[in-house]
């Protein structure tokens, strides 16, 4: 069963949170509310999120300060942040949002379809990264366990490699389709860069698998890092 991605919605106004939930419910993912920057940071201590929708104007810790805290943490610094604001102070205000680490900056009222489409891209990238981490973990277990399956059965090397290769191929195919979609849609540069990073990690994992093929050398190759 594919686990749903979590999307963090941060806004001090309940009606705005309700509106965001109505817009994003069609994505069929897990929507998590936070009514302040402090509450958002607390949620990020325990859960992993695909993307954060962060209101700029909040009492106490505003969106910029919240984003700064998020980007300083090792665990959360790579989570995409989309800023939402009801006011527009011009280019300087927008630049401040990007400088704080946002991948996008959207003024209210926003087009629901556009917002949903932007969020869906980051959700899909997150899911592909999760699949990649799972395949890398499986490869490590197989290499360290001498080819044993999860139930303790020892598999022939050829059969093991074929299984791992097939699993990786499925992720590669989905990543390639996503990259093509991003190119066709002229998506945000941040989304395209994230997709390219995912493809590089897939390439590293494929090389590690290819190195295990008979006749390509001896010894277990190192599995690429998933950071």
TrEMBL record:
<dbReference type="InterPro" id="IPR001789">
    <property type="entry name" value="Sig_transdc_resp-reg_receiver"/>
</dbReference>
<feature type="coiled-coil region">
    <location>
        <begin position="161"/>
        <end position="188"/>
    </location>
</feature>
<feature type="modified residue" description="4-aspartylphosphate">
    <location>
        <position position="55"/>
    </location>
</feature>
<dbReference type="InterPro" id="IPR011006">
    <property type="entry name" value="CheY-like_superfamily"/>
</dbReference>
<protein>
    <submittedName>
        <fullName>Response regulator</fullName>
    </submittedName>
</protein>
<keyword id="KW-0597">Phosphoprotein</keyword>
<dbReference type="Pfam" id="PF00072">
    <property type="entry name" value="Response_reg"/>
</dbReference>
<dbReference type="InterPro" id="IPR050595">
    <property type="entry name" value="Bact_response_regulator"/>
</dbReference>
<feature type="domain" description="Response regulatory">
    <location>
        <begin position="6"/>
        <end position="123"/>
    </location>
</feature>
<keyword id="KW-0175">Coiled coil</keyword>
């Amino acid at each position: 069963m594919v686990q749903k991605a979590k999307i963090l919605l941060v806004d001090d106004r309940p009606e705005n949170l309700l509106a965001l939930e109505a817009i994003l419910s069609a994505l069929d993912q897990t929507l998590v509310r936070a009514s302040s920057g402090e509450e958002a940071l607390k949620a990020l201590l325990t859960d992993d999120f695909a993307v954060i929708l962060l209101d700029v104007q909040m009492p106490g810790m505003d969106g910029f300060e919240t984003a700064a805290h998020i980007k300083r943490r090792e665990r959360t610094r790579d989570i995409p942040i989309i800023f939402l604001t009801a006011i527009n102070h011009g280019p300087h205000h927008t630049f401040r949002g990007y400088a704080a680490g946002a991948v996008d900056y959207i003024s209210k009222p926003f087009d629901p379809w556009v917002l949903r489409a932007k969020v869906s891209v980051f959700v899909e990238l997150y899911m592909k990264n999760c699949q990649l981490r799972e395949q890398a973990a499986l490869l490590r277990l197989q290499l360290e366990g001498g080819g044993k399956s999860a139930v303790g059965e020892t598999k022939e090397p050829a059969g093991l490699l074929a299984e791992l290769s097939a699993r990786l191929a499925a992720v590669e195919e989905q990543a390639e389709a996503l990259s093509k979609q991003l190119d066709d849609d002229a998506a945000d540069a941040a989304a395209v860069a994230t997709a390219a990073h995912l493809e590089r990690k897939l390439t590293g994992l494929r090389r590690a698998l290819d190195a295990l093929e008979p006749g390509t050398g001896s010894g277990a190759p190192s599995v690429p890092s998933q950071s």
